[in-house]
Sequence to fold (374 residues):
Amino acid sequence: MTDTTKLQRWLDLIAYFVGRKHPVSVDEVLEHVPAYASPLETDDAKTLDATRKMFERDKRELRAFGIPIETVSFTVDASEAQEGYRLTRCDFYLPYLRLMEEAGPAYESGRTSGSGAGGGSMPGVPTLEIAPEEAQDAREALDLIARFEGSPFVREVSSALRKLAFDLPLGDTAPTLFAGRPEVEELRARLAQLTDALLARKRVRFGYHGIYRGERTEREVDGYGLLFRHGNWYLIGHDHLRDDLRIFRIERMEDVEPNAKSPETPDYDIPETFELVDWRQREAWELGGEEAPLEARVAFRFPRSLWVDRNRFGELVDARPDGSSVRVFRVHQVDPFLRWVLSQDGEARILGPAELATAYRDMAAEVAALYRRR
Fold:
């Protein structure tokens, strides 16, 4: 028998699992999948061990691709329980999509129909009904994700759009063209590494350039979540160097290296108290954390002071008789904060520290000069 390629081996393994209604043992897999069965004809211990390792490696790689191969315990004819594997059709195949307005009476009682319901569907594969407005919302959401600069999900978005276009009449599904910065491809590769590590709960090491000093420090982080805010991507997690929760701007990372040991064993658990939504609500200048924040004191005139208080910007430290107020802000990123103060149309004034007030005046002068040239 000629040697098979890895792709053929993967396809044979998937086909064997999908074709079985019940869990199968590793011995059954090795006996019936051609690439594994041929080496079993020998009595050489090293060859047999290499074959088993090849199966374990294939299984691990297929799971990494998203193939949901389950490890289960099962019994045969009341015998002792043994470990086996299973890949069900409903988990492996995407459901057939059907617009509700085309579904007819057979689908009015439920949104998901199982086991071969619907025209042309495969036995064991459900049909999912989608309202026309839901299909359009899905399309618009996918287009939006595709436009995020450096998005690690471009390949997944393209696949989802093909799925929608195959099953549903959505009209033109041409991909959105976006001209990104030259470093976008490097950022996307870095995001893909971090996404894989986060899903597998694997610790990551990287060099990081701080916002203020700019010097590189070596970090080891248990990732809790990835965040896209104000045009930038961030990793949030437990920083072992600071022994605390920190947020890192991904563009400032270098030499990202996920822990490669025990790839199927998580390195950590995400605390139940962690909520990514808490970070989504933060302003751009609050997204930092690898160094101590800068405390900025800002005076707001009345009635702008009422608007700032109502929206809970900063912390009130002085409420004056004329209705104006002074608030303290903890600033991790200076430029976004200065731009925000500048957007207050002269109703806000930085009181301190002095270097921040100077930087604000310089930024205002640059903006004024830019408009004078126009």
Observations:
- The first strand starts at residue 70 and ends at 74.
- Residues 103-110, 115-119 have pLDDT under 50 and may be disordered.
- The CA atoms of residues 297 and 328 lie 5 Å apart.
- The first helix runs from residue 6 to 18.
